[in-house]
Design brief:
The complex is a heterodimer of chains A (158) and B (400).
Chain A: H1 24-35, E1 39-43, E2 50-51, E3 57-58, E4 63-64, E5 66-71, E6 74-83, E7 95-102, E8 109-113, H2 121-127, E9 133-138, E10 151-155
Antiparallel strand pairs in A: 1-2, 1-5, 3-4, 6-7, 6-9, 7-8, 9-10
Chain B: E1 5-12, H1 23-38, E2 47-51, H2 63-67, E3 79-82, H3 88-101, E4 107-115, H4 122-127, H5 142-157, H6 161-175, H7 189-194, E5 197-199, E6 202-203, E7 212-220, H8 222-226, E8 233-241, H9 263-275, E9 285-287, H10 293-302, H11 311-316, H12 333-336, H13 340-355, E10 370-377, E11 382-389, H14 395-399
Parallel strand pairs in B: 2-3, 2-4, 9-10
Antiparallel strand pairs in B: 1-7, 1-8, 4-7, 5-6, 8-11, 10-11
Classes of the chains: A mainly beta (158), B alpha/beta (400).
């Protein structure tokens, strides 16, 4: 028996779970487009909305969607937040995420919004608003992985 | 006949950051307290509903296995577990209501416990409620999702940071009177505005705490209720609503519902009121699920208590204060205690306490005849509403 008393009262545990998510045909095709530096949507044949990110069916009409339509890279900021507090296992602040409705799309897509001034909340208050023009910017071809993080948003103006 | 269901007993533990009692012990404590409050024995209970939000919050998968006996599901008593995220507690009470109103069960126990403080990774866990393909690669979580709602609401209705702060001041003032509340201290508008910005535009004092604790309710039909030696509260109607999974579909000219607000919450409340034979104008008190000050700004108008453009002015006028015309969250609400699995159940419990005049330190001056409890789960996927009254009523009864 150990001579030192064990710590009682708390059991520490960490989960480490591995998944291999099948991305399916629609997201796979979308990722392939991102790898080429292009963003595409799909259209619902009933409501005729162009849905970005694309999905196999329209949840308004329960109809199978049809592809593929190029959208962006220009867009309009629909909403955003800038995070200043560190959440464990999430990125180091400050960072911004934003929903942007790209030209040609009826819905908005989420990505990071990059700007050197995000650390200044006064700049954020003045410089970002619903309706601010943004554009999607891609990583250089050699750095693209065919994933959502291949592009981000930047202010379209100066 | 009426399809109203009686709330014979309720319980809440004190809510705080951490409990040493493990999950089954907390669940059993809340269940026993609610049964004692109802003056019933476990043997009088026909079925159990276990109220439990995402498993990872307590670190046990399929926890209804572990906790079924503690919840009272022994001696062959049936149990179902409900998880609708933040709405879980009210969805659980709705399932129990359906059990009783259907005539299949006379008396149903609803119980749950939460220990958000047990993992320091709550917002990472909540990031995992998004799909791995399009949304989860980004740090979406309940804080960032609601911050993005706050930006749209402010854009649409011109509300300010001061308006958000006034919601926080009101709820903290109420929570200070509530012996169960996790946060029991008053704050000022300046303190809120000077607190750290967590996720723009939301500051530390605009947000709820991470709470642990348990709650339970005992629901029964009118025959059982007649044997009680005091007047119960009554569930007179329930409603549910849902919106699209896709946050980005809730913006732009072709959006069916805007991320700024929640038309599906409005329809859930309308259904609950209609089934009670009342309108939103008959409500005298509301316990609205609103974990952040920004949520309450849209939940009040969505509940039909005023117009969206008026909410800030009415809040500033004190209309929704505990002494006001229509008290909203007299308990201090979710901003003062957020034990996720039972948070929305506590909204119904608080309404039951208020209509029976037994809320204690935060009892409103004149017990309301009609009160409203709401819950919101996921990101606009699960809205729940419950109309709770001092007397049994229903649409059926009103017609007769």
């Amino acid at each position: 028996m150990s001579t030192t008393a064990p710590e009682t009262g708390i059991i520490e545990e960490r989960w480490d779970i591995t998944y291999r998510h099948s991305t399916g045909s629609v997201a796979s095709a979308f990722y392939a487009g991102l790898h080429e530096g292009r963003i595409h949507g799909v259209r619902c044949p009933e409501c005729e909305r162009v849905l970005v990110p694309p999905r196999s069916f329209c949840d308004r009409d329960y109809a199978t969607t049809e592809g593929w339509l190029p959208v962006g890279p220009d867009g309009v900021l629909e909403t955003f937040t800038v995070v200043y507090r560190k959440f464990r296992s999430l990125p180091d602040p400050p960072y911004a995420i934003a929903y942007v409705r790209l030209a040609g799309a009826d819905t908005a897509i989420l990505s990071y919004l990059r700007d050197d001034r995000l650390g200044d909340v006064d700049w954020v208050r003045e410089g970002l608003a619903v309706g601010t023009p943004l554009r999607a910017v891609f990583a250089p071809a050699g750095e693209r992985a065919g994933r959502m993080t291949d592009f981000w948003f930047e202010l379209a103006g100066p | 006949m009426s399809d109203a269901v009686a709330i014979l007993g309720t319980s809440q533990t004190e809510f705080r950051h951490h409990y040493e009692e493990p999950q089954p012990e907390l669940v059993r404590r809340a269940a026993s307290m609610a049964l004692a409050d109802a003056q019933l024995e476990l043997a009088d209970v026909d079925a159990v509903v276990y109220s439990m939000a995402p498993d990872a919050m307590i670190g046990v998968m399929h926890p209804e296995r572990w906790v079924a006996d503690a919840a009272g599901a022994i001696e062959g008593r049936p149990i179902l577990r409900v998880n609708t995220g933040g709405a879980t507690g009210l969805s659980s009470a709705q399932l129990a209501y359906h059990h009783v109103a259907s005539g299949l069960f006379r008396t149903v126990l609803v119980v749950g416990a939460e220990r958000v403080g047990e993992s320091g990774d709550a917002q990472m866990i909540l990031n995992r409620i998004w799909d791995p393909f399009y949304e989860r690669p980004f740090p979406l979580n309940t804080v960032t999702m609601l911050a993005m709602q706050a930006v749209r609401f402010a854009d649409r209705y011109g509300t300010t940071d001061e308006d958000l702060a006034r919601v926080s001041v009101k709820n903290h003032r109420h929570g200070a009177r509530n012996c169960h509340a996790h946060i029991r201290r008053e704050v000022t508008v300046d303190e809120v505005l000077e607190s750290e910005t967590i996720a723009y535009p939301l500051r530390f004092l605009d947000l709820c705490p991470q709470s642990s604790g348990a709650a339970a309710m005992v629901l029964a039909n009118a025959d059982v209720a007649r044997t009680a030696d005091r007047a119960p509260a009554w569930i007179n109607g329930v409603g549910v609503g849902t919106e699209t999974y896709w946050i980005g579909d809730r913006m732009g000219p072709r959006a069916a519902a805007d991320h700024a607000e929640s038309p599906a919450l409005a329809s859930a409340v309308e259904s609950a009121c209609a089934r009670s034979g009342i309108g939103a104008h008959d409500l005298e008190l509301a316990e609205l699920y609103a974990p952040f000050s920004s949520t309450e700004l849209h939940a009040i108008p969505d509940a039909g208590l005023c117009e969206s453009g008026d909410v800030a002015a009415r809040l500033a006028d004190g209309e929704f204060d505990i002494e006001g015309r229509l008290p909203v969250n007299p308990s201090g609400g979710v901003m003062c205690s957020n034990p996720i699995a039972v948070t929305a159940m506590v909204r119904a419990i608080e309404c039951a306490l208020q209509v029976t005049g037994t809320a204690g330190g935060h009892q409103v001056h004149s017990p309301p005849t009609h009160a409203l409890a709401t819950g919101i789960g996921g990101d606009h996927e699960f809205f729940a509403a419950m109309a709770i009254g001092a007397e049994p009523r229903s649409r059926t009864e009103v017609r007769a």
